[in-house]
Every structure is written in C-alpha cells, then in structure tokens.
Amino acid sequence: MPRRTLKGCGSQLDSPCHLGYCGLGTQRRNTGRLSIWEQLAVTMGPQTDAPGPGGTLSVICQDLGQTAMLADRIARHLVPGDVVLFDGPLAAGKTTFVTRICKALDCADQPSSPTYTISNVYTCPHFEIFHIDAYRLSGIDAFGNLGIDEFFPDSVTLIEWGTRVAGIFPQALRIEIAFCQGEDGARRLTFTSGGARWQPLLAELAGADAATDRPA
Fold first, then answer.
1. Regarding the domain delimited by 4-22+37-207, which CATH topology (the fold level of the hierarchy) does it fall under?
2. Are the beta carbons of 158 and 131 closer than 8 angstroms?
3. Pairing of β 173-179 and β 187-193
4. pLDDT digit of tens for each residue in the chain (216 aa)?
5. Where are the domains of the chain?
6. How far from the centroid of its chain's Cα atoms is residue 72's Cα?
7. Of the candidates 119, 122, 126, the residue with the CA atom closest to the CA atom of residue 107
8. How far apart are CA 28 and CA 158, in angstroms?
C-alpha cells in the first residue's frame, strides 16, 4: 500500500532532518573488537542515567549503529494505541529517529517529514503508523480538527513537536532530543514516561535487561 498523507497543505519534504549520531553513554564509542551488541550492553549500563522517580531517563547517543539499536528497542515495545511524542530544536533529529523506528518495524513506506502535510500514514506488517508534525498547529483544538483521532487506537502514533498536543496524551512516551555542548554531533535523548505502560522500556534502556540481547 503506498504511503498516504492526510490534511495536506503543501508539498512534502523530500528527506528527513539530519542527525549527527553518537553512542549510548557519555564517553566515545569503543573502537576495539567488542561487537556492537557488547558495546551497547556496556554503554547502556553505568553511563546511562537511571530512571528518575517520575519515570525519566536520559541517554547520550554517539554513533549511528547504537542509535539504530536504541530505536530498535523502542520499536519492539510499540503496539497499536501507543503514542510517542518527540521534541527538540530544529535539526536535532526528530524525523531521523522516527524514520529508524519505522525501519525497525519493517514499514513498507519511506518516511519523510510531514511538516507541510501535517500527517503521513505508513503501512507496517501488523499496523499502521501515523507520523504527525504538530509544528504548524496552534494547539490542541487545531489538532482535534484534523479528524484522525479515531484511527489512534488501531495504530502507533509518532508526533513531532509533541509538546504542543501533550495535554491530549497523558500516557504517552515523551522523547526530548537535545544537542550536547562540547560534544561534536552528540545528542542527549531524555525519555519521560506518562504512566506504567512505559516502565519496562525505561528499565530496559537503563540496562536492567541489556544482557538478554547479547549474543550467546
């Protein structure tokens, strides 16, 4: 099924934002002979801030391979009805991260920024993904006027500039992508859980389950 767009009000952007990637943790990627899975298990432990009492976790990204694995971990937890809100400055990498999640879910369509179309719909083997850019929306009322909320229970919804509509989704997972001062190309991803739904994911990202993904 070809990609669909909803509520279009302009031409689509041809490519996602560029994200300068780096590994998980505050130090540079290990350049020795550890496998990438072993590197991930190491860096997702002590170099990752533990989840706070409010369900918050911060991760520093340092290379494309480990960032891809981070997106893969998130993708494995996603089921219809889930909503993930992305925030961060322009060019921080919101669209790029969404694109990697879609790839991890074997999406049949090539994601692109919905800045002008407001909403794109991508087909995955088991459900559809609604990719929404709320940047041009004035607020919650404008979001409601899109008339797409009826599809959310049966889809995974990924919303860029999610702060603008966060009031509608108290149970959403929020991901803030920020530049890291003094780190060339580095990004800090801060995960905030809106409820118990996301606690297993935060625990996994904190390293509690990292060993289960290491090769035997």
1. Rossmann fold (3.40.50)
2. yes
3. antiparallel
4. 445 544 433 323 232 333 323 333 333 334 343 333 333 333 343 334 545 545 889 988 876 666 777 888 999 999 999 999 999 999 888 998 999 999 999 998 988 988 889 999 999 999 999 999 999 998 899 999 999 989 999 999 999 999 999 999 999 999 999 887 766 667 889 999 988 899 999 988 887 334 434 444
5. 4-22+37-207
6. 10
7. 122
8. 29
